[in-house]
């Protein structure tokens, strides 16, 4: 079975940093683009970052550009999201997603989703 398991969330002060990890199993990891989405209280789930299956192209939401970095380690079937200079508005449940052949900005381009990990940034 396919599993995407996020970890690394927690409580951090504004201006601090966290690194989220997503461990993937049950699929050929190198054939999938990977994305991160988040859902804040009372809001819709939104795109955060994407990395393609060759790691040659990355994309970020404007709200996180310059602060967040997505990366992948094909040897360990893991995707990461390094989050720096965190703001209270970054508070959300963060979800990892896998899209066959690419993925993208929209949720509909992904096939599998993790359970989410909570990130809370205090002001």
Please give a structural write-up.
By secondary structure, the protein is an all-beta fold. The protein is 0% helix and 51% strand. The protein has no helices and 11 strands. The protein has strands spanning 3-7, 10-13, 18-25, 32-39, 46-51, 58-60, 68-73, 78-83, 92-100, 112-113, 117-122. Strands 2, 4, 5, 6, 9, 10 and 11 form a 7-stranded mixed β-sheet that branches. A hairpin with a 6-residue loop joins strand 5 and strand 6 (58-60). The chain starts with a strand and ends with a strand.
Keywords:
7-stranded mixed beta sheet, 123 residues, mainly beta
Helix content: under 10%
SSE topology string:
EEEEEEEEEEE
How many individual β-strands? 11
**Estimated radius of gyration:** 13 Å
Based on secondary structure, the structural category is mainly beta
Short description:
By secondary structure, the protein is an all-beta fold. It contains no helices and eleven strands.
List the helices and strands and how they pair.
Elements: E1 3-7, E2 10-13, E3 18-25, E4 32-39, E5 46-51, E6 58-60, E7 68-73, E8 78-83, E9 92-100, E10 112-113, E11 117-122
Parallel strand pairs: 2-11
Antiparallel strand pairs: 1-3, 3-8, 4-5, 4-9, 5-6, 7-8, 9-10, 9-11
